[in-house]
Design a protein that fits this description.
Elements lengths: L2 H10 L7 H41 L3 E5 L5 E2 L2 H8 L4 E16 L2 E10 L13 E4 L10 E5 H7 L10 E6 L14 E13 L2 H4 L2 E5 H8 L4 E2 L1 E6 L5 H12 L3 E5 H4 L1 H25 L1 H13 L1 H9 L4 H37 L20 H26 L8
Parallel strand pairs: 4-9, 6-8
Antiparallel strand pairs: 1-11, 1-12, 2-10, 3-4, 3-7, 3-11, 5-8, 6-9, 7-8
Subcellular location: Cell membrane
InterPro entries: ABC3_permease_C, Lipoprotein-release_system, MacB_PCD
Pfam families: FtsX (PF02687), MacB_PCD (PF12704)
Length: about 400
């Protein structure tokens, strides 16, 4: 066994019952363990929240979405659309027209987004992770139907079992130079039959109504123009590879976004929050490491005689420094290992049994989501190693300055 490690280990395992330094070392170890466990648990919760948001948005958003680089809409022809469908890895291509509109049901009004989709929209496996009331049906050209966000349905007091009252949709016409005093000439109006409610995420539930593409195209006077195309990747193909192929085919006039890019802002916010939480808890861990600094400093004072004897026996300064650095490492690594194990067990129990509830009414998830990833364990370990080295360096330097006069 390495001599410096052997001495450091003996100091750590000191059996003096009333040795204050030994007690302080144990307290330091517990502090490192608690800090490490907290880091693992909090980072895993952020990972779980990030995955939850991705999953919820994936139930509503497409795997790939094509938008125009400039402008609100773009022209779609049958030949061009067929060319996209023939790209390797493209499974289903859905045409989309989306805009704001005013909805009225009985005496209630609400401004929301109307999303017109082609007939194959439901083939993309939408709403798999959400909740549905009613029948997912967009109707026919003669009787178009609407799939309504649960929040919109609440604002409008929509009754799915009422066959008489229909959902009225109003959309303003493009302004013309010739003025008119007839208010009916200022907007287009049509009706939809409510067929179902969906509940995925509050932002979608409170703002979206899904309707047939032909209905929305007629109401908004879009003709062959579309605001976006949504692509479902064929099974067995990589989303990123298909994205690269579609981007290369379309050129610079179009943007192809995956699910993360469609909600880049909120995912970036979560990552920034995770970073700041990591830095905050690391700072707390650094404060806790002051116990290591004080325990090693007091040990360097108490063990002056032992250090002087080692020097007399021919020990070098670097060996004395190694003893105290390794003493700090033993304290920190023991605490870190205990913290990593406890953090893992706590996250596993939360993942399996949902011990800690969110504390709010939710139809999607009841307990805090967690996801453990190996690089969180890696970066936590790196932080502990760095902090330990910094906390142990000064006491090690002090101890190496002992002379034979201290005998």
């Amino acid at each position: 066994m390495n001599l410096s490690f052997f001495i450091a280990y003996r100091y750590f395992r000191s059996k003096k019952r009333r040795n204050f330094i030994t007690i302080l070392s144990r307290i330091s170890m517990i502090g490192v363990a608690v800090g490490t466990m907290s880091l693992i648990m909090v980072l895993s919760v952020f990972n779980g929240l990030e995955d939850l948001i991705r999953g919820l948005y994936a139930s509503f958003d497409a795997e790939l979405k094509i938008e125009a680089t400039k402008g609100k809409s773009f022209l779609v022809t049958e030949d061009w659309l067929k060319s996209i469908e023939e790209i390797e890895g493209v499974g289903v291509v859905t045409e989309v027209i989306e805009d704001n509109a005013l909805f009225k049901y009985r005496d209630y009004q609400h401004l929301a987004r109307i999303k017109g989709v082609s007939e194959n929209y439901l083939q993309q496996g939408r709403f798999d992770k959400g909740y549905i009331w009613g029948e997912l049906d967009l109707g026919s050209e003669k009787q178009p139907k609407a799939i309504i966000g649960r929040g919109v349905g609440f604002f409008l007091s929509v009754d799915l079992d009422n066959p008489i009252d229909l959902l009225q949709v109003y959309y303003p016409k493009a302004p013309r130079s010739a003025g008119t005093i007839d208010p009916n000439q200022l907007y287009n109006r049509d009706i939809l039959k409510p067929s179902a409610f969906f509940s995925i995420e509050k932002d979608f539930d409170d703002n979206y109504i899904i309707a047939p593409l032909t209905f929305v195209s007629s109401l908004l006077n879009y003709g062959e123009k579309r605001t976006s195309l949504e692509i479902k990747v064929a099974e067995g193909y990589s989303i990123q590879r298909v994205k690269s192929k579609v981007s290369a085919f379309l050129g610079e006039d179009y943007l192809v976004k995956d699910t993360d890019e469609q909600h880049a802002q909120i995912l970036r916010t979560i990552k920034i929050e995770k970073l700041f939480v990591f830095l905050t808890l690391t700072f707390i861990l650094a404060v806790a490491s002051f116990n290591i600094f004080f325990s090693l400093s007091m040990m360097a004072i108490e063990k002056k005689r032992d250090t002087a004897i080692l020097f007399a026996l021919g020990a070098k300064k670097w060996m004395i420094q190694k003893i105290y650095l390794k003493q700090g490492a033993i304290i920190a690594f023991t605490g870190a290992i205990i913290g990593l194990v406890l953090g893992y067990l706590a996250c596993w129990l939360q993942d399996q049994y949902g011990l800690v509830s969110l504390g709010i009414a939710s139809s999607v998830i009841e307990s805090y989501p967690v996801k453990m990833v190996w690089w969180d364990f890696l970066w936590t370990s790196v932080s502990v190693i760095t902090i330990t080295f910094l906390a142990s360096f000064r006491p090690a330097m002090i101890a190496s300055r002992v002379t034979s006069r201290d005998l």
